Amino acid sequence: MDEKQRYFAELAFDGTRYHGWQIQQNALSVQEVFNKALQVLLRQPIETVGCGRTDTGVHAKQLFVHFDVAVSGQQSVISEQRSAVSYQPSVVSDLQLETRQELIAESRLLTSSLNAILPKDIAVKNIIPVPANAHARFDATLRAYEYHIHFGKDPFKQNYSWQLRDFPDLGLMNQAANIIKEYRDFSCFSKSNTQVKTNFCMIKEACWMEKEDGLVFHISADRFLRNMVRAIVGTLIAVGKKEIKPEAVRSIIESKNRSKAGVSVPACGLYLTKVVYPYIAST
Questions:
Q1: 227-256: per-residue pLDDT in tens?
Q2: What is the pLDDT of residues 112-130, one digit of tens each?
Q3: Cα separations (Å) of 132 from 3, 67, 79?
Q4: With the CA atoms of 226, 231, 233 and 235 taken in that order, what torsion angle do they form, in degrees rounded to the nearest 10?
């Protein structure tokens, strides 16, 4: 049996024409396209595991996946050395110079070769050799999203931002966003029947910022539920339009009832922007 080397791939993609990251029946996904490119390049069956799902039409500025590549012959010696290395960059730097150079050269070649095969709306930013037990989903300690809103018709933003007619009250929305950070159970913002063990999340950041051409909502947490960010944004927009008061967010969250929260806003404005691991330098 061939020995295997595990890699992390850092991707970015325009989600407009895809039904999210994860492979689905009868629908084109980013994972399907990426898997096919890997298999063409490496000439072996490849399965990838992503750091999480994204909904149809959602974009990613940074998304990590892991996959295993069968190696043999001389490559297995390098593989053994890689697998014995700690994740910490300081330890990696202690490898023999020849092995380090080969690791770097191999990753760069794999990155450039994949980008030559992939369509223009999917890019590989980096390929990182990691030990066999590294996991793209379970090892992530933080994920961050942005939601973009613009005002006034703009054909160049129709797939990348949500257009609102009236400017909402930014102060009220940030009051409500601060309330959200006080809670852990976000059942009210989750799709039902998602088969997760818990609806608890630890939100680190939740705030609205004004930019030159609109608004952007920043949110980060250790994990997110399906549809959670879009439901939160819809609820906060209702606050900004003064349809509900900021304090009403408390009763919505405490109800644990999705029907009590706001509408799910369009996917086009949502971006996965950052995924953090304890053993990968943050970019």
A1: 999 999 999 999 999 999 999 999 999 999
A2: 999 999 999 999 999 999 9
A3: 11, 10, 10
A4: -160
- Three-state secondary structure readout of the chain: CCEEEEEEEEEEECCCCCCCCCCECCECCHHHHHHHHHHHHHCCCCCEEECCCCCCCCEEEEEEEEEEEEECCHHHHHHHHHHHCCCCHHHHCCCCHHHHHHHHHHHHHHHHHHHHHCCCCEEEEEEEEECCCCCCCCCCCEEEEEEEEEECCCCCCCCCCEEECCCCCHHHHHHHHHHHCCCCECHHHCCCCCCCCCCECCEEEEEEEEECCEEEEEEEECCCCCCHHHHHHHHHHHHHCCCCCCCHHHHHHHHCCHHHCCCCCCHHHEEEEEEECCCCCCC
How far is Cα of residue 209 from the mean position of the Cα atoms in its chain? 21
Tokens of 73: 């012959």
Provide mean pLDDT across the span 102-115. Answer: 84
- Enzyme catalytic residues: 55
* pLDDT at residue number 78: 37
